[in-house]
Amino acid sequence: MKRNMVHATLWLLVVVLGSSCATNPGAGYEADWESLAAHEQAPDWFADAKLGIYFHWGIYSVPAFDGEWYPYHMYRDGKVKEHHAKTFGDPATFNYHDFVPMFKAEAFDAEEWAQLFEDAGARFAGPCAQHHDGFAMWDSSVNPWNAADRGPKRDITGLLEKSIKARGMKFITTFHHARVGQRYADKPEEWGGYNSHFAYHPDFATSSTNPVLRKLYGNMPEAEFNQYWFDQLKEVIDQYSPDIIWFDSWLKMIPQEYRKQFAAYYLNEAQKKNQEVVIAYKQVDMPSSIGVLDIEQGGKKDLSESIWLTDVTLGTKSWCYVEGQQYKPAELVVRNMIDVWSKNGVVLLNISPRADGVIPQEQHYILLKIGAWMKKHGEAVYGTRAFDVYGFGHAKVEAGQHGGQSATVQYTEKDGRFLRSKDGRFLYLFMLGKPAVGSEIEIRDLARHTYCPEGGIKRITVLGTQVEVPFHWAKRNFWLAVPDAELDEIATVFKMELN
Length: 499
Hints:
The chain contains 12 helices and 20 strands. It has helices at residues 2-23, 33-36, 44-49, 70-73, 79-87, 110-119, 156-166, 213-217, 222-240, 256-272, 330-342, 361-376; strands at 51-55, 124-125, 128-130, 170-175, 244-247, 278-282, 292-296, 298-299, 308-313, 345-351, 384-385, 391-392, 405-406, 416-421, 426-431, 440-443, 457-462, 471-473, 478-481, 492-498. It starts with a helix and ends with a strand. Helices cover 27% and strands 17% of the residues. The protein is α/β, with parallel strands linked by helices.
């Protein structure tokens, strides 16, 4: 009897301890959503950072036509296929892999790039590690199509990791490769199907069973591809210890068991290295308790309780470099970033290097202009948090292509946004332009009966100066008068010292 009670007690103890290991981060993470949810999906450093930079740069940069979806379109009827045939030859004879030796990246300088990212005000940065095209931008023993063995013949990711981390920035790697797998090989009626990046067809190398070529074009059974997907992630985690792993759409096409396996491996490795890491995802490809939601080329329309992310690009024609690329002005980028921050968001800004590794001067100029504004107003940006309301104004807001609102809203000096210091001592008002000296700004949300800080406002200055800003409360609103001071053309910031 006693022996049975002892066995029962021991069994219960094992069950309890086993259960706690599944939810206690100190005991490691299990490959199930409940255990994985125990980690902090948006650590403080990420909320503090506000701005990161990455780049679409790879084999698709060689043709520099239409965009990073060139390999998708070159095997399907349309303008890209016509351009390809005219410029390089029929895709049956000049395939996507024939661009690889042309991607030399001879001018690439990791130190120069990392310094530019830092000067632009980024607090994290890194490469698009693998796009939909199946080419790995790191030194890989899993994927034979990689930057260390082919093309540049340098470990692009490794060089950037060292240069970026040396400057105190966090390191991000982005992955778009869930889409590479051929999912229609046995369905001729769907050989051009949307959910496989490369169009399967016997006339093209995309259907090759060559043991090397098939890994670029994803022509393998689905179970084999899913393992291949995971093995490449594991390799990047092991070799480069990224602080953020970001996923593009189509991640949901990878079975849950592999997504769980990835998350558990990444979080357990981070725990061993004493890292606080971030998993970023789109749509509903991961549970919200596991990672940070990313909204492409847009933002939330209202204040969010949780930290979120948006990826936006500097170019207006594509995400990668193309001939004749045009760019958003720094003013537009900064004002839309402020809107994101005010709603509890973080910005991941994309740039577009040329195939030779040169970041065009137009992009340099815009990034440095953004950086100059960030340096001048850093106190009101880095380490701040959203206020009780995000702001006010009447700018016309259009819907974003991927949800939320557009990333190109034309804000003016009539639109205001708030951020607060973490210690609660200061409230920062960003006017998204340069208000006229002598004008008055009405802020109904700061009326005493609405969202005015309980202790009231002690003093207001123009950030970076000692110029006092007159203010007063009326019955139903709050007013401040714009002083004769050095105001900023991109966005003027008023610093409110709270009682």
